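Proteins fold reproducibly. Take a sample protein:
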Amino acid sequence: MHIMFSVNQERFKSEMLSQNKSVTDLAKEAGLATVTITNVISGKRQATVKTCNKLAKALNVPVDELFTV
């Protein structure tokens, strides 16, 4: 069974802006494809626990500030 998470789009985008990070920057830091991040941010795709952790770590914020079950 996989638990999937939805992104808090406003918080996610706000954090990227405040850190001056593009999707490409975030993809490199998180070790994810840019299309994965774009789809998660836009809500086209929910994120796995692993993806949530990678993105939160790359943005240096707690996972629960970016994602909800």
Summary: The chain has a mean pLDDT of 90. The longest helix spans residues 49-59. Helices lie at 9-18, 23-30, 34-42, 49-59, 63-66. The two ends are 14 Å apart (CA to CA).
